[in-house]
Amino acid sequence: MDDNKALTFSGIVLSIFLMGVFLRLAKSVLIPFVLALFFYFILSPVLDFMTRLKIPKVLAVVVILLITFFVLYLLGVMFYSSGKSFAAEFPKYGQKFSSMLRSLLSGFKLPNVKWDPLAWVDSLDISQVGSLLLSSLGTFFSFFANLFLILIFLIFMLAGRGKLNIKIKNSLSPHRSSQLVKIIEHIDREIQKYLAIKTIVCLASGIFTTVVLLIFGVDFAIALGFITFLLNYIPNIGAFIAKILPFFIALVQFEHFWPAFWILVILTVFDAIVSMVIEPRIMGHGLGLSPLFILFALFFWGWLWGIPGMILAVPLMAILKIISHNFPSLKFLEALMSK
Questions:
Q1: Contact assessment for residue 310 and residue 302, using Cβ atoms and an 8 Å cutoff
Q2: Number of other residues whose CB lies within 10 A of the CB of residue 313
């Protein structure tokens, strides 16, 4: 009996290890696949609506794909060009930030000490940081290739919508197939609701941030708005970074505290209204993910897939919790992920 338990435990550990290796090595394909899966859940209600209007499914899929390609391509071009400008201008901002810190510390009139609080600024090669940001953006060709791969996955997902239920009904007994189809449809609706509402909320935050920054004349408003849109998928931590980043950019650009302060206040008030009033009313009871589990998910998926993994981490965990809620054998996993 002890040998069987040891073998079972060893098999579980080995399976987790191999799964992690697979996820890390195949991230160039899996990240577009997961993104396509998210788009599928968001766009499938649109497909259902168009088919109810007696529009042929093939035509509906083609229209949805064309609109999706146009929107993603437009957003990608805008963010890519703005991100390139930000990366190129980063050394100038770094030097201004260093001089501001030195002026601030000199105002405190600290006594002569051997420890230099700004030694890290001198050791930081600002030009190298700018080059790192440029390389992290990758090439436009790689962006276009990933977009094409996402659309390929999306074609098969949308074209195959509804076929799983037919296969289940043909392969199982009527009672069992009816139960399983109801569970799958319920999971489908819950995931659609979560991703659609979350995406709309994140998009509203990104647009609002862009408009506010454009009104104040902050540089890279479009890039910062897009970053806000992405970071708002990460509860608490992402929303905090999404407000602090424009604050520091405005502070360094204007070299005055008050414009940056008012930007921070406006963004914080809007985020509080959305997260505490609007989103709970629309979302309902919410998913109630544990903050510790969210932190673990951010570290794990960030280690596996980098920054895209950190952005996708919470939606992936939310989908996993929705699935766990609908299967009695996975109730322990739901309890583990809950607050």
A1: yes
A2: 24
